[in-house]
Amino acid sequence: MVSLLQVIVIVFVLFAITRVFFRYQDKMINTFELVFWSLIWIAVAVVLFVPTITEPIARLFNVGRGIDIAVYFSIVLLFYLVFRLYVKLDTMNNELTKVVRKEAVKKRK
Amino acid sequence: MPKIFIVIPAYNEAESISQVIRGLRKEGYTNVVVVDDCSSDNTAETARKAGAAVLEHVINRGQGAALQTGTDYALEKGADIIVHFDADGQHDPKEIKDMMDPIKKGKVDVTLGSRFLRKGSNVPLLKRVVLKIGVIFTFFYSGILLTDTHNGFRALSSKAAGRIQINQDRMEHASEIIDQIKKKGIRYKEVPVTIRYTKYSRQKGQSALNSIKIAARLIWTKFLR
Question: Is the pLDDT higher at B219 or at B184?
């Protein structure tokens, strides 16, 4: 029996994977990123349909339920990605300032 | 005679900027550099008319960024001493002499203006409290104990100006400059200055609440960099 939740999530996963693939085609992401993101989304789909698959991992980490380990993992991953995004944004801001500065000084000459 | 450049970061200061520039020129400072940080009023034009060299940021990058732009330009033009000066009329151009004196004598490379060193300073109470918290914060952040850490009035030798690189684009640069002075072992000294508190300058200054935001950002970036 396929639940409504599973339908919604699988549609979203398929959508996300096509996005990843298009980004790869546009050369916005490299092969590593393509594989990384595809695996993440495929993992989401697998866990969704075979929740028991997480149980051995959960046992390994001494966590009660398989789904908990998936949630923990997601949170850690999200934090890491936010951190990376922050650093990138900071770098970009600095670079933007450099461009603005160069332009300001150049125009004055 | 050393070549002196006065650098004024300005954001929407059309009301006060020409008077500030005229005040500086009257004291004999002809190299006045105004960095217009993409004001929405006619700060740039007003400053140009008053006789300043105007550099324009095409998008707003913050006071720290503007200061660095002006400093870069002054260094390129062969400045020997660079003075950071406020656009809102808070600082007294007559005091630039006192600020530059220790640098000219070769005693230090940076002087920092302090409104608390002069007896009978007229700093409003809330401002006084916020500034003192800033002093304590800077002490913990950079390990330098000053009397007034958030004063925009500074003088730098070209050597020091070349070594200090402001990366904090927004208001955090005041603490950052002090941090770099400490880290790079630059010789510095605080010099008493007077701050004119007018209705205009108080309105343009930093609010107490904003200071908390600035501190939070500094702590955050200390983590990351």
Answer: B184
> How confident is the model at residue B214, as a pLDDT?
77
Q: What is the pTM of this model?
A: 0.81
Cα–Cα dist A88/A86, whole Å? 5
Strands B81-84 and B188-192: unpaired
Residue among B65, B74, B105 nearest B191 (CA): B105
Distance from CA of A94 to the nearest CA of B (A): 7
Domain borders along chain A are: 1-49, 67-108
Q: Widest CA span of chain A, in angstroms?
A: 73
Dihedral of the alpha carbons of A19, A23, A26, A28, in degrees to the nearest 10: 160
User: B4-224 has which CATH code?
Assistant: 3.90.550.10
Assign B20 a pLDDT band (cuts: 50, 70, 90).
Answer: very high
**Contact assignment for A101 to B57 by CB distance below 8 Å:** yes
What residue ranges do the domains of chain B occupy?
4-224
Q: Any chain B CB within 8 A of the CB of A97?
A: yes
Q: CB distance from B99 to chain A under 8 Å? A: no
Question: Residue ranges of the alpha helices (H) in A31-65?
Answer: 31-49, 55-60
**Token digits of residue B72:** 């870069």
Q: Examine the pLDDT at B223 and tell me if it is beyond 70.
A: no
- pLDDT of residue B225 exceeding 60, the answer is no
ipTM of the complex: 0.83
Report which DSSP code applies to B114. E
Show Cβ contacts of residue B11 under 8 Å, excluding neighbours closer than 6 positions.
Answer: B36, B37, B38, B39, B43, B60, B63, B66, B87
Interface contact A104-B221, CB threshold 8 A: no
Q: Is the pLDDT of residue B205 over 70?
A: no
Joined tokens for residue A15:
């959508």
Beta carbons within 8 Å of B188's beta carbon, 6+ residues apart: B108, B109, B110, B111, B112, B181
- Compute the distance between CA of residue B138 and CA of residue B67 in angstroms, rounded to an integer: 20
